[in-house]
Design goal:
Blueprint: E1 31-32, H1 44-54, H2 66-76, E2 83-86, H3 88-100, E3 106-111, H4 116-123, E4 127-132, H5 140-145, E5 151-157, H6 169-178, E6 184-188, H7 203-209, E7 213-218, E8 231-234, H8 237-246, H9 254-265, H10 267-290, E9 302-305, H11 311-320, E10 323-324, E11 326-328, E12 332-336, H12 340-352
Parallel strand pairs: 1-10, 3-4, 3-5, 5-6, 6-7
Antiparallel strand pairs: 2-8, 7-8, 9-12, 11-12
This protein binds 4'-deoxy-4'-aminopyridoxal-5'-phosphate.
């Protein structure tokens, strides 16, 4: 065959930062504490709704996510025009960046934070500006100092993945007072339901007073629907309309819409599970600290420890015992809170483990 020219792609595509996903579990017998998933399977009532929905997969889903928007609007007490569901909160993040930050613009966020931010910013042609954490927490003062004329979006991951630490109300209000009103501030609240510290603001209360604030939430974590890919933004109408304009049509499957609605219906049962995970988070933190580990206070469904060059060795020790945790280079390790039994197994290894 004669040689054919390869398609011409963007020159910088091969240089883009990649999102390195956690590995899939090799079998169901493994305790997967590596991807911040909910360890509990969907409730029978949610599965029943999905079964019914399976009968309709020959038809496209509602592209406006109408029923889901109506029910979210009631649950959160926000107007329906302020709600934009998307393909996981990751899909919504991508659309927000498309809407607000292109070539030559800057997207500012803390580092370390959620690994998808650099990839999504760069893939969109914008420049990612990363402001180091201070003692494992967002340094909002340094972030405000890093704002330039080119800054179009600031992402505050609250609680922060992977450290679990959360920004307090007064700190966030101070940042918002300092940042120009034409910069979009995105509060990524993927782990909001796990917050039990009253000083951590509810982004939806913050957004009500601030037209430049958008909030991201997801059904992947507390609601246990990670595989279905459904999340949403809450934002004022100009931002929400821009988001809809940038979204992939039919981006939320019918199964995902139905399961998300059924989960809202079963919220009290699901939040009961969240309470168990929050209690377990306290137990895991306490036990790790008693074993000599340094673990910052977490407000999410995972804990972080800066093990440095030992992160890989600890991950390997866990893996040898059938437990998956998530190492981040030679910085640290993130451990998702699982069922009490899985946490017991993890804690046994962590307590015995010596660097
Ligand atoms: N934001 C943060 C901070 C996350 O940690 C994650 C998942 N790891 C997401 C967003 C993505 O969530 P979703 O499944 O809704 O795309």
């Amino acid at each position: 065959m004669p040689a054919r020219p390869a398609p011409r792609l963007r020159a910088d595509v091969s240089q883009l930062p990649r999102y390195v996903p956690g590995r899939a579990a090799p079998s169901d017998r493994v305790d997967k504490l590596s991807s911040n998933e909910n360890p509990y399977p969907p409730l029978p009532s949610v599965v029943a709704v999905m079964r019914e929905e399976l009968e309709r997969v020959n038809r496209y889903p509602d592209p406006a996510n109408g029923a889901l928007v109506t029910e979210l609007s009631e649950a959160l007490a926000v107007p329906p025009e302020h709600l934009v569901p998307g393909t996981g909160s990751l899909g919504v993040t991508r659309d927000l960046l498309r809407a607000a930050a292109g070539e030559g613009d800057e997207v500012l966020f803390a580092w370390r934070s959620f690994e998808a931010y650099p990839q999504l910013a760069w893939a969109n042609g914008a420049t990612a500006v990363q402001v180091p954490l201070r003692e494992e927490r967002h340094d909002l003062e340094a972030m405000a100092d890093a704002v330039t004329d080119r800054t179009r979006v600031i992402i505050v991951c609250n609680p922060n993945n992977p450290t679990g630490t959360a920004v307090h109300r007064d700190e966030l209000e101070h940042l918002l007072d300092r940042v120009p009103g034409d910069v979009l501030v995105v509060l990524d609240e993927a782990y909001r339901e796990f917050v039990d510290d009253p000083d951590v603001p509810d982004g939806i209360e913050v957004y009500r007073e601030r037209p430049n604030v958008a909030v991201l939430r997801t059904f992947s974590k507390a609601y246990g629907l990670a595989r279905l890919r459904v999340g949403y933004a809450v934002a004022h109408p100009p931002v929400a309309a821009a988001l809809r304009a940038c979204a992939v049509p039919f981006g939320v499957s019918g199964l995902a819409q139905a399961a998300a609605r059924a989960s809202l219906n079963a919220e009290s049962e699901l939040l009961e599970r969240v309470r168990t995970l929050v209690d377990e988070r306290a137990r895991v933190t306490r036990t790790l600290r008693a074993a000599g580990w340094t673990v910052p206070d977490s407000q999410a469904n995972f804990v972080w420890s800066r093990l440095g060059s030992q992160a890989r060795a600890f991950t390997d020790a866990c893996e040898a015992a059938g437990i998956m945790v998530r190492p981040f280079g030679d910085e640290g390790v993130r451990i998702t809170i699982g069922t009490p039994e899985a946490n017991d197994r993890l804690l046994k290894i962590a307590s015995d483990w010596r660097a």
